[in-house]
Write a structure and sequence with these properties.
The complex is a heterodimer of chains A (316) and B (735). With 316 residues, chain A is α+β, with helices and mostly antiparallel strands. A five-stranded antiparallel β-sheet of chain A has the order 4-5-8-6-7. Chain A has a three-stranded parallel β-sheet with strand order 1-3-2, with helices on one face. Chain B is α+β, with helices and mostly antiparallel strands and 735 residues long. Among the domains of chain B are: 166 residues, Aldehyde oxidase/xanthine dehydrogenase, molybdopterin binding domain (Aldehyde Oxidoreductase, domain 4, 2-Layer Sandwich); 196 residues, 2-Layer Sandwich (Aldehyde Oxidoreductase, domain 4), CATH 3.30.365.10. In chain B, 24% of the residues lie in helices and 25% in strands. In chain B, helix 10 packs parallel to helix 17, helix 13 packs parallel to helix 14 and helix 16 packs across helix 17. The chains are: A alpha+beta (316), B alpha+beta (735). Chains A and B meet through helix 12 of A and helix 4 of B. The complex binds flavin-adenine dinucleotide (FAD) and iron/sulfur cluster. The site of iron/sulfur cluster has 15 residues of chain A, from loops. Chain B: It comes from Hymenobacter perfusus. Chain B: Pfam families: Ald_Xan_dh_C (PF01315), MoCoBD_1 (PF02738), MoCoBD_2 (PF20256). Chain B: This is Xanthine dehydrogenase family protein molybdopterin-binding subunit.
């Protein structure tokens, strides 16, 4: 771990301003991802801005009838929040499918969205990795890629985004509210929040430098049956091989976002029109253009099977 | 004391304390966090500094240059030690690996340097500043590719003969009306114990004390002496508590060596712990195998030919994974052939992991038996029973001392409800789950070996036992305490057990499933001597003296035990050694594993639903700790069946998934209710304790039982572990 300086800020605007003031700074929320990466010198911030006390830890109704989830709300609090459980069951289930109770107690909404990939080569600083060291190459593509992405990837990086929560947020059409260093705020639809890797896999979101996430906005509830099915080798405490987050309506229409296949939660709205036709048709469209490796090609069939399971469950 | 003829009745047979389900003596210390592990001896040595090991960034080649200027100048740095400073160190005896690289690098993450600083954080930060440049050379990392270069190795110290032949295997197999010829693979696995490898080293003059995490302490001191070039007598190793080892902490590994070098260089005590990501490639692992099994049988299921060949790889000089060991003994059959082959691979060293060879080989053999049963249209239990043997099949003049494999299978079948099994795969459903059941036999050698102990008695009647036996979480403290309590007629609360110090009389340590049987026998011998000393001190005839309820009784006379030590503490020491009974008798432990799995109809996720083990393993010294060993082993077997694989990157040459996020072991949610039945067994050929080990038996066969259950659930035979859902996708017939 590199030596760093530390400060604690009181307001979101202060946080963004502090970041602008000190080059090489990073926000610290729950620290469950950032600290691990710092110990391995995968992240080497010179300055840490602790945003834990900026007061963004509330979940409030919005005038539109949705919810505004403070960026610092913990995964545990969010999963257990009554209106979330009632109206956004998908989100609650996705959260509870992730990590462990202890981690969820620390992990925050913003930190979860910004957690970094679990590609094993990213974690070993001796290995080539374009995401960690731009231009160094990608050891995973010809190496061990069973866990990695099949779509939205590039010849520079095939890593996935590992979040369960983000899959649910994507299906729920969430928006990410931010404040920039100059004090301006904006709301970014989650659909546009992540970038595909292309030749710059180290750039993962469209956030500007020093831009602070203040909240995640959920539109009014859409009803339907909410299912989050996470598929993994062991029954708990593992990242998804793939996951399917679905909201299925009585008439067979619905929304599905998929995790574990791409550098971001993968959702193709046009494919959703095929949902009433069944899992096969929908998945073919969802994963059109997929470029799996030999080791992770099974994910294509697995997504289709899991979508079938979810649609089957929704019917019963 | 030398044990040469089968044991008669002795004080242990009273089973007042032995055989009782006593809770672990050190349990409260562990649950309250007050049992110190190697890295936690904060007061034992003054002002320790911290060492951080730098592992090689390449798999094979040469260190060209180490630029230490930046690291040396970093805050808090006290010393940096590399091979350039201390020269090339030889390997120890137990491991073939050189524990310090330079100039050659033999495998990924082999220690290249240790950086010592005032704090752990400073050492770690400085370690990242050490600039090592390498010249890489080509290595061999792919067992399949190296298979044809493998040779039949010389017989090593462990694992038995690499090649055995009885009768005419080839002829009998060719002539067999029913044949099975299948190839199975098992991956590299890692021990994944909780406590990382850690040491605090402290030099006082030329004497070295290390608080460490080593399973076999006197071997550890021996190997550390060899590596450092100092006499073993100058080394004291202390491992009072070990947070799991599973064979991965046998003797001296790099934490021990690097801490010793670092402490010498810094002139201060130094603590070194390997980080979790280093452990996988720096230390040892269970090597991968390719196994070909050929079975020939008559139509009514009598085995006429048994052939088992296994290939594994290792660093030059490393051992062979003895995957054929169980096949030599498990089933009858006139014509037999086993062969081990060993290739050179430039991965970390393959070495002992819980039931080395046997767990690995039985992962294959017991699927093969299931496959053969199906070909014969026989129940797999019936096939196993039909081929039971009461003599060593390779040496029929040598009977098993005790062997109740058939009872294990039958008892388990009754308890598990095996008769309800539907033989046709894919027949049973429960909602979205396809249900299957599987069985496998278990066999694990019951070695026993020389072990010494010292016993003290004080005036308060407190008995203190000292031996360098370790407790790696297994219950050694407790069973040793129970042994001494039984022998001296006191309750367990009157016994103090001191383990894990190489200054104590030598035991073989924890390993090879010999620790419990050997160390308690050593304690038995010492206690016999103490009984004599007590009788003598009280002026009694030793032959007539009895020890019960804290009293010493002879005829009408009775004394409190402590009375014997009124004048001075009584101390007795002895070593149990062995004659030739192990040659005359095949001494083994047996078991049967039953497993029910569910395979998700859509995702093909595999979840274990029920497990049962029946074990036949000598006198059960403590049914509670024995059961804990078995359920832990069953859990490990589920990992081996469904999860665990060190993935080799064949280009870079290393295990890629080198942390506990990438290398998955079972969590609670993976493990259902586990049931263990311990069959009664007293084996007088073993020792006066009549006991055997059980800690490794519990693992052997589990993975195959899971594999057979997956087959029964789905109709898909997976011969390549771990059995993951991708190996089933597209193959399960869902109609
Ligand atoms: C063992 C383990 C298992 C796990 N398993 C799962 C799993 O199964 N599923 C899953 O989804 N996740 C899993 N996780 C990941 C976990 O969900 C994330 O670590 C966690 O959500 C990160 O939140 P945090 O608040 O701790 O983030 P931090 O570590 O504090 O921060 C993460 C990143 O977000 C940035 N950041 C934080 N807050 C803000 C903000 N307000 N504005 C801008 N930037 C910000 C930080 O600078 C940093 O770059 C696991 C983690 C661990 C350690
Ligand atoms: S897939 Fe991406 S994260 Fe993984 S090694 Fe390649 S570039 Fe790095």
């Amino acid at each position: 771990m590199k030596t760093f300086t530390y400060e604690r800020v009181r307001t979101p605007a202060e946080a963004a301003a502090a970041a602008a003031r000190t080059p090489g700074s990073k926000f610290l929320a729950g620290g469950t991802n950032l600290l691990d990466l710092m110990k391995l010198e995968i992240e080497t911030p010179a300055h840490i801005i602790d945003v834990g006390k900026v007061g963004l830890d509330k979940i409030e109704p919005t005038p539109a009838g949705g919810l505004r989830i403070g960026a610092l709300v913990t995964n545990t609090d969010l999963a257990n929040h009554l209106p979330v459980r009632r109206d956004y069951g998908l989100l609650s289930r996705a959260l509870l499918a992730g990590a462990t109770g202890q981690l969820r107690n620390k992990a925050t909404t913003a930190g979860n969205l910004l957690q970094r990939t679990r590609c094993p080569y990213f974690y070993d600083t001796n290995q080539r990795c374009n995401k960690r060291v731009p231009g160094s190459g990608c050891a995973a593509i010809a190496g061990f890629s069973r866990q990695l992405g099949v779509i939205g990837t590039s010849n520079a990086c095939i890593a996935t985004h590992p979040s369960d929560m983000a899959v649910a947020m994507r299906a729920l059409d969430a928006g990410v509210e931010t404040v920039k260093a100059n004090g301006t705020t904006r709301t970014i639809p989650l659909a546009q929040f992540y970038r595909l890797p292309g030749q710059t896999p180290h750039l993962e979101t469209i956030l500007e430098k020093n831009e602070l996430i203040t909240a995640v906005l959920l539109p009014p509830p859409v009803g339907g049956v909410h299912i989050y099915q996470k598929v993994r080798d062991r029954a708990s405490y593992a990242f998804a091989l793939i996951s399917v987050g679905a909201i299925v309506q009585k008439d067979g229409t619905g929304r599905i976002a998929v995790g574990g296949v791409a550098p971001q939660p993968w959702r193709v709205e046009t494919a959703e029109q095929l949902l009433p036709a069944g899992a096969k048709e929908f998945t073919a469209q969802l994963l059109q253009g997929a470029r799996p490796t030999k080791e992770n090609a099974f994910k294509l069939a697995l997504v289709e099977n899991t979508v079938a399971a979810v649609l089957n469950e929704a019917r019963h | 004391m030398k044990f040469e003829t089968p044991a008669g009745i002795n004080p242990i047979d009273q089973q007042k304390v032995i055989g009782q389900p006593a809770s672990r003596l050190e349990g409260p210390l562990k649950t309250t966090g007050t049992a110190p592990y190697a890295y936690e001896y904060h007061q034992a040595a003054p002002n320790p500094a911290y060492g951080y090991v730098v592992g090689a960034a390449i798999a094979k080649g040469q260190i060209r240059r180490i630029d230490r200027r930046k690291a040396q100048a970093a805050p808090g740095v006290l010393a940096i030690v590399t091979a350039a400073d201390v020269g090339q160190l030889p390997p120890g005896k137990f491991y073939a690996d050189r524990l310090l690289a330079g100039p050659a690098v033999d495998h990924y993450h082999q220690a290249v340097a240790v950086v010592v600083a005032e704090t752990f954080e400073q050492a770690r930060a400085a370690a990242a500043l050490l600039k090592v440049t390498y010249t890489q050379t080509k290595g061999a990392f792919d067992l399949t590719a190296a298979k044809d270069t493998a040779i039949v190795p010389k017989q090593g110290e462990f694992g038995g003969a690499p090649q055995t032949k009885v009768g005419d295997f080839e002829g009998a197999f060719a002539a067999a009306p029913v044949q099975l010829d299948a190839t199975y693979t098992t991956p590299d696995q890692t021990h994944a114990m909780m406590e990382p490898h850690a040491t605090m080293a402290h030099w006082q003059g030329d004497k070295l004390t290390c608080w460490c995490s080593v399973q076999q302490l006197n071997w550890g001191a021996r190997d550390l002496g060899t590596i450092l070039g100092i006499p073993q007598e100058n080394i004291r190793l202390i491992s009072a508590y070990i947070g799991g080892g599973f064979g991965g902490k046998g003797t001296a590994l790099s934490d021990l060596v690097m801490a010793s070098l670092a402490a010498r260089a810094a002139g201060r005590p130094v603590k070194v712990a390997l980080t979790r990501p280093q452990i996988f490639n720096n230390t040892t692992h269970r090597p991968a195998t390719i196994q070909r099994i050929r079975l020939g049988a008559t139509p009514d299921g009598i085995l006429t030919a048994i052939g088992h060949e296994s290939w594994s790889g290792n660093l030059p000089g490393g051992r062979t994974e003895a995957a054929t060991a169980s096949t030599k003994l498990l089933y009858a059959g006139a014509n037999r052939f086993t062969e081990l082959r060993l290739a050179v691979l430039n991965l970390a060293e393959g070495n002992a992991m819980r039931a080395p060879g046997e767990a690995t080989g039985m992962m294959a053999l017991e699927i093969a038996m299931d496959e053969l049963a199906e070909k014969l249209h026989m129940d797999p239990i019936a096939l196993r029973i039909k081929n039971d043997t009461q003599v060593d099949p390779e040496k029929p003049e040598r009977p098993f001392s005790t062997r109740k494999l058939v009872e294990c299978l039958q008892t388990g079948a009754d308890r598990f409800g095996w008769s309800k099994r539907v033989a046709t795969p894919g027949s049973v459903r429960d909602g979205q789950w396809l249900i299957g059941v599987g069985v496998a036999a278990a066999i694990r050698g019951a070695p026993i070996t020389t072990s010494a102990a010292r016993v003290r008695l004080n005036r308060d009647g407190i008995v203190t036992v000292e031996t360098d036996m370790t407790d790696i979480g297994t219950g050694s403290y407790t069973i040793i305490g129970q042994t001494a309590a039984e022998m001296l007629g006191v309750g367990l609360d009157r016994v103090v057990v001191k383990l894990g110090d190489s200054a104590f009389p030598q035991s073989p340590g924890s390993g090879g499933q010999w620790g419990a049987a050997s160390s308690t026998s050593g304690v038995y011998a010492a206690c016999l001597k103490l009984r004599e000393a007590v009788a003598k001190a009280l002026g009694l005839n030793p032959a007539e003296t009895q020890f019960a309820n804290g009293q010493v009784l002879a005829g009408k006379r009775s004394y409190a035990l402590g009375d014997a030590a009124k004048a001075a503490e009584l101390v007795a020491e002895d070593t149990m050694t062995y004659g030739t009974l192990a040659k005359q008798y095949a001494q083994d432990t047996f078991g049967a594993h039953f497993v029910e799995v569910g395979v998700h109809r859509y995702t093909h996720e595999i979840r274990v639903r029920r497990m049962l083990a029946v074990c036949h393993a000598g006198r059960i010294l403590n049914p509670k700790t024995a059961r804990s060993q078995v359920i832990g082993a069953m859990t490990m077997g589920v990992g081996a069946a469904l999860l665990e694989e060190l993935v080799v990157d064949k280009q870079v040459g290393f295990f890629v998934n080198h942390d506990l996020a990438g290398y998955e072991v079972p969590v609670h949610a993976d493990i259902p209710h586990q049931e263990v039945i311990l069959l009664e067994d007293l084996d007088p050929t073993m020792s006066p304790m009549k006991a055997k080990g059980i800690g490794e038996l519990g693992l052997v066969g589990v993975a195959a039982a899971v594999a057979n259950a997956v087959y029964n659930a789905t109709g898909v035979r997976v011969r390549h572990y771990p059995i993951t859902l991708d190996k089933l996708l597209g193959k399960v017939n869902l109609t």
